[in-house]
Predict the 3D structure of the following.
Amino acid sequence: MASTVTKEYRPTDDEPFMNERQREFFREKLLAWKDEILEESRGTIVSLQQETIAEPDLADRATSETDRALELRTRDRQRKLISKIDEALRRIDDGSYGYCEETGEPIALSRLEARPIATLSLEAQERHERRERVHRDD
């Protein structure tokens, strides 16, 4: 049930931040993304079920096992992404969506359009990544 909100509407800085129309825009964007991921997962499951045939050739078997491991890693990343999408949908419902977890400031609309599950402003994300790099280099 796609609304016309996302078809013609684009959030702008000229309107109140996270007004009802913006929240609905991001809700629909997140739900569409989740549906796309779930559809891909269904395809992966069908593919994995069909590929359970034992390969007589060792090289073919190794290739199949490598492909299967890659598919399973991809599914795990997708599962984590769905969890982040669900968290973003909860934030839309509780009114905290679009605001930086660290500073409380609004996250740029362009950042949210590119990464609708973002929880940090660009500046806070960069600080976080710098801290990670410093600790990783220790």
Summary: The first helix runs from residue 5 to 8. The CA atoms of residues 99 and 106 lie 4 Å apart. Residues 100-138 form one domain. The chain has five helices and no strands.
